[in-house]
Write a structure and sequence with these properties.
This protein is mainly beta. It has a single domain, classed as Tachylectin-2, Chain A, CATH 2.115.10. The relative contact order is 0.14. The strands form five sheets. Strands 14, 15, 16, 17 and 18 form a five-stranded antiparallel beta sheet that branches. A four-stranded antiparallel beta sheet has the order 1-21-20-19. Strands 2-3-4-5 form a four-stranded antiparallel beta sheet, covered by helices on one side. The protein contains three helices and 21 strands. 6% of the residues lie in helices and 42% in strands. The structure holds beta-D-mannopyranose. The site of beta-D-mannopyranose has 11 residues, from strand 6.
Length: 351
């Protein structure tokens, strides 16, 4: 991969040095987004008061920015955004933020290495962003004879190495673990169909090199009437990069139910075994967030809460989850990490 040893500084860092009036550069140095839980709210997960943080017309000609991934990068935050213009054809765009809330997004899509047979030729959506040993890996749903999991690597968000697609079509929601387990890379995914997929369970696969994937194991099935979990009865898919906790891995995911008015996407969480992450130790028996705010209920696709990324700070016990709302905008919700873990453990159903 054509990279330098140390990550390049991001454009915001450069702007900070200059005495210009760059709108983002004037903000305080990076701290992860946070708001305390409103006093009248007793939920384990609560919404950012100024959602959406990225609205539907973030830039001229743009009709939606949603289901997007963020990560820490030096003293600021980087994002890979699903952005749609008036052709409604999704591409991935890089963006930068000092505070994780105000984002400056590149109006041009990410260009992957030239001459690569797998270079981005078709649609690209629902990215996830995972740092492993100093390299950032983007996984996304790419169109290659139908949707499947595409991967690219970068250290500076200027040049990107396009890796082989991880799986055969059709597959979505490819989510890497942030470190090797037993010397191998692990990725969650959700085998699917070529359409809007009225089914879906979460699997995990292993790879020695991020190219050859195998040892595919079922992690969790969708719920249903027999287990009393209608909110996750139709399909499920992993969301943010799993967070390593004392008990194993906290996996935040989306659970979908079919209704007479279409699908409803909610947020759930489970705890997976640290060494064998196909073993589910706990799985929440109720959604943590379901479409209720106007921006989740109204949009290009109504009733969608689609978590794709999370920032956390162990010292302050803070978690910020980034989710797409109604296939239109980007939103943030908060939780105390320890409270969320305890909630999942106390309100768990295994099936
Ligand atoms: C899925 C994907 C997501 C989208 C969701 C709800 O199949 O297309 O990008 O958020 O449907 O429309």
């Amino acid at each position: 991969m054509k990279t330098s040893a140390a990550p390049a500084r991001n454009p915001l860092a450069k702007d900070q040095d200059a005495t210009n009036s760059h709108p983002v550069a004037r903000l305080e140095p990076a701290t992860m987004p946070w708001e305390d839980r409103p006093s009248q709210d007793h939920s384990v997960v609560w919404r950012h008061s100024l959602n959406p943080v990225i609205g539907r017309h973030h830039m001229p000609g743009v009709q939606g920015v949603y289901n997007s991934a963020v990560a820490r990068f030096g003293d600021s935050f980087v994002g890979v955004f699903r952005l749609e213009k008036r052709d409604r054809f999704p591409h991935l765009h890089v963006g930068w933020s000092r505070d994780g809330l105000a984002w400056e997004i590149d109006p041009a899509p990410i260009k992957f290495a030239k001459g690569d047979p797998n270079s981005q030729a078709d649609y690209a959506y629902d990215p996830r962003l995972c740092e492993i040993e100093g390299t950032y890996y983007i996984t996304w749903c790419g169109g290659h004879n139908g949707p499947t999991i595409s991967i690219a690597a970068t250290r500076d968000f200027k040049t990107y190495e396009r890796l082989e697609n991880a799986f055969l079509p059709f597959n979505r929601n490819g989510v890497l673990f942030p470190r090797k387990i037993g010397g191998k890379y692990f990725m969650l995914s959700r085998p699917s169909d070529d359409g809007h997929t009225p089914f879906g369970d979460i699997y995990v696969s292993q790879s020695p090199d991020l190219c050859h994937w195998g040892m595919h194991r079922l992690v969790m099935r969708r719920g249903g009437g027999e287990v009393g979990q209608w909110w996750q009865r139709t399909k499920i898919g992993a969301g943010p990069i799993p967070i390593e906790i004392e008990d194993g891995w906290l996996m935040i995911y989306h659970g979908v139910m079919d209704t007479c008015n279409g699908f409803v996407y909610s947020m759930g969480a489970a705890i997976l075994d640290r060494e064998q992450p196909w073993r589910v130790l706990y799985r929440v028996n109720q959604h943590l967030l379901t479409p209720e705010a106007d921006y989740e209920v109204f949009g290009h696709v109504p009733n969608v809460v689609f978590p794709c990324a999370a920032l956390h700070d162990r010292a302050s016990d803070r978690l910020a989850v980034y989710y797409g709302a109604a296939d239109t905008s980007c939103c943030v919700a908060y939780a105390h990490l320890s409270e969320l873990v305890e909630f999942v453990k106390k309100n768990s159903v295994l099936f």
